[in-house]
Amino acid sequence: MQEALFYEQAQDSEVICHLCNHNCHIKEGGRGICGVRENENGTLYSLVYGRLVSENVDPIEKKPMFHLLPASTSYSIATVGCNFRCLHCQNYQISQYPRMHAGAIPGRLTEAADVVEGAVRQACASISYTYVEPTIFYEFAYDCCVLARGRGGSRGKAAGAGELLRAGARARHQKRLCQQRLHVARGHAPPGPGA
Ligand code: SF4
After folding, report:
1. Is the CB–ligand 1 distance for residue 174 below 6 Å?
2. pTM score, two decimals?
3. Residue 149: left (phi > 0), alpha (psi -120 to 50), or beta?
4. 60 C-alpha vs ligand 1 centroid, how far in Å?
């Protein structure tokens, strides 16, 4: 388990998660609305760090992006869990998995380096954090982005149906993820600071 980002400790071992606008107040032993962030002894953990349930090579046109690296492929990953409960969810088997299976967290334990390596090996021009609302596996997505940038490679993006990040987290998210977009496609210079 990986300690979560964006939370604060409150009284009586309660924690408050600020990763998204739900701002869950989570008591000792409890989880947030997303079902994948748990308070253990006053520390908030991500239960889905590196626990991938989906790993696919998708055409970029499948993503909710406009004219981004057209005709390329995107290495697409997801964990279980979601901070939404949309009735029309096409991926409810994974987005609602913890709720439907007594809190179980399945997934193949994967290193961030393996994701980046997979994207390079499959000649993908980007990595997509997708299928469920990717906010809920932020910590793993972030580590993938940092490593991908180190490879001089892929453009990372959160391709959620309706990304819901709290303002403070969003600022750091944009700084960490969006400004660290990787032009994985060989021959593309990485964006400069502040790009
Ligand atoms: S990420 Fe999960 S635990 Fe954190 S505020 Fe959102 S729903 Fe609650």
Report:
1. no
2. 0.83
3. alpha
4. 28
Domain ranges of the chain: 2-46, 51-180
Q: Is 32 in the pocket of ligand 1 (CB under 6 A)?
A: yes
Nearest atom in ligand 1 to 7's CA: 4
Closest by CA to 39, choosing from 16, 6, 11, 22, is 16
Q: Is 22 in the pocket of ligand 1 (CB under 6 A)?
A: yes
Residue 19 Cβ < 6 Å to ligand 1: yes
Domain spanning 51-180, CATH class: alpha beta
pLDDT, tens digit only, all 195 positions of the chain: 899 999 999 999 999 999 999 999 999 999 999 999 999 999 999 999 999 999 999 999 998 888 888 999 999 999 999 999 999 999 999 999 999 999 999 999 999 999 999 999 999 999 999 999 999 999 999 999 999 887 765 455 555 433 444 545 555 655 555 444 433 333 444 333 333
Q: What region, left, alpha or beta, does residue 139 occupy, with left being phi > 0 and alpha being psi -120 to 50 degrees? A: alpha
